[in-house]
Amino acid sequence: MKGGKMTNFDDSNLILRSFDPIADSQSKVLILGTMPGAESLRKRQYYAHPRNLFWPLIYGIFDENPDADYNKKIDFLRSKKIALWDVYKSCRRKGSLDSNICDEIPNDVAGLLNAYPNIKYVFCNGETSEKHFRRHVLPEIKREIYFLRLPSTSPANASVPPEEKMRMWRYIRHTLENRVKYKSVAKTEIGEIIVLADDRVVTGVFLPGSEPETDGFALFSGNRISELAKNQIEEYFKGKIRSFDIPFEIRGTNFEKNVYNALLKVPYGCTVTYRELAEMAGNKHAARAVGQALKKNPLPLIIPCHRVIGSKGRYVGFMGIGGNPLQKMLIELEAEYSGKYSFAESAD
């Protein structure tokens, strides 16, 4: 305010300036907005518009109600190890819509991330923030950073229901609680194959016709491990490799682990029956139990359950589907590249 006159932050001729970042050495995630709206600029507070959902969401993902006092809100962010900033340092804008932004000058977001190396994950509040981050910030960062776009908390973003916003904003809590997975997608002749990994191992491979469950964890684009698996899967389909050299863990009951370990010994281009695999796993009478274990195999291709066929050479239950054409395609692919031929018949 100058000379008693209130500043009009809706004036398109006014140069708007954003706030200092909220961040410290304990911060683990960064929420990145675009530019404070007119009401926020008037009050000098992040997300001050009463209909902006930022504070209800950021408290709600931790099952708490927002504090009324702004300083307590900032303390809440710090206590949860959440940093907060905007992509633009200054701009001109009529009203509060991102689409009206012009003459923008960016904040040094890359510099902030370099200054606080504990921040590994960035959540972009809306499309404009994500586009700027992906195009202009990410190329300037020289370490591993993962990001997700969340639905904008702006009152103007009414197309996404509040419950869906809450579901997606919970990714922040999942991340802070180390419930994170990374997704890569292999392009193959049988379709897209999804690979999930955590920070240590591949946790899931999903062939066409199966989809990963994403509730309960935050899903980011591929990391080094999921990308390694993706590349090897694509090489497998080109006949360049016959086994996988990637980190994974065999999980399940003791019997399931025995089945999976036995299956890893079945050579490329070869098949075994359910009974033969049961015997290899230590119980020749457990052929049906072997079938149930293979249905639960989280790592098809890597643990090659497609190499298990019925006693008469039929494809009887790959991925829990009798006569699944994917099994025939995989067996014939291996037969082609190994110089062998598949005599198995469809169960049809």
UniProtKB/TrEMBL annotation:
Key words of the record: DNA damage, DNA repair, Methyltransferase, Transferase
Q: Name one Pfam family in it.
A: Methyltransf_1N
User: Which EC numbers characterise this protein's activity in its record?
Assistant: 2.1.1.63
Q: Which family does it belong to?
A: Belongs to the MGMT family.
Q: Which SMART domains match?
A: UDG (SM00986), UreE_C (SM00987)
- The answer to keyword Transferase applying to this record is yes
For this UniProt entry, the molecular function terms from Gene Ontology, in alphabetical order, are: methylated-DNA-[protein]-cysteine S-methyltransferase activity
User: Which NCBIfam families does its entry note?
Assistant: hypoxanDNAglyco (TIGR04274), ogt (TIGR00589)
Q: Which GO terms describe its biological process?
A: DNA repair; methylation
Name the chain's protein.
methylated-DNA--[protein]-cysteine S-methyltransferase
Q: Which reaction does it catalyse?
A: a 4-O-methyl-thymidine in DNA + L-cysteinyl-[protein] = a thymidine in DNA + S-methyl-L-cysteinyl-[protein]; a 6-O-methyl-2'-deoxyguanosine in DNA + L-cysteinyl-[protein] = S-methyl-L-cysteinyl-[protein] + a 2'-deoxyguanosine in DNA
| Domain Uracil-DNA glycosylase-like: residue ranges | 20-173
Q: How would you classify this enzyme at the top EC level?
A: transferase
